[in-house]
Amino acid sequence: MKIIFFGPNGSGKGTQGALIKEKYKIPHIETGVIFRENIFQETVLGKEAKGYIDKGELVPDNITIPMILGRLSKDDCMENWLLDGFPRNISQAKELYEALCRQNIKLDVVIEIVLDSNAAKNRIMGRRLCVNDNNHPNNIYIESIKPSGSNCRVCGGELKTRSDDQDEAAITQRHSIYYDAQKGTMAAINFFKRL
Known about the structure:
Blueprint: E1 2-6, H1 13-24, E2 28-30, H2 31-40, H3 44-54, H4 61-72, E3 81-84, H5 90-102, E4 109-112, H6 117-126, E5 129-130, E6 159-160, H7 168-178, H8 185-194
Parallel strand pairs: 1-3, 1-4, 2-3
Antiparallel strand pairs: 5-6
């Protein structure tokens, strides 16, 4: 099963993706994780991506697409995958679709989480990441998943914040890209809806 998963930053894609991964035993391919791994490993593409991410800008296609297609070509993705956080714009959607067609890979499901941008912003700014598992839900603004002090409510691990989660201007910039129905992520969603 090949799945693309859409939703604005803060919508819970990572948490829901982890549930789908577990239920269907498929690789959960998160672009954010791929970016962070490349940044942490200080790859050439990772260094380039970091500059854009830190400003809340979309990482250009010539950096993003090779990272994603490289990941989808690995052995664990031959039969199934859940792609989360990509494509983020109409050109990426078209390029991904064309690459899948060239490889005779059929996309099975497209999932979209719909969330108001203000609610998404509050979720982002309140998000706390567990050092043991980023998909453990912890948010200081949501009572049902509020952490226990500075520890993860699921496993007790230490919690951290991402610097870009606390930058309101960067969040607004990311959301302006997501909600752009002409060139942004909403345009990509609409492209797949028309297929």
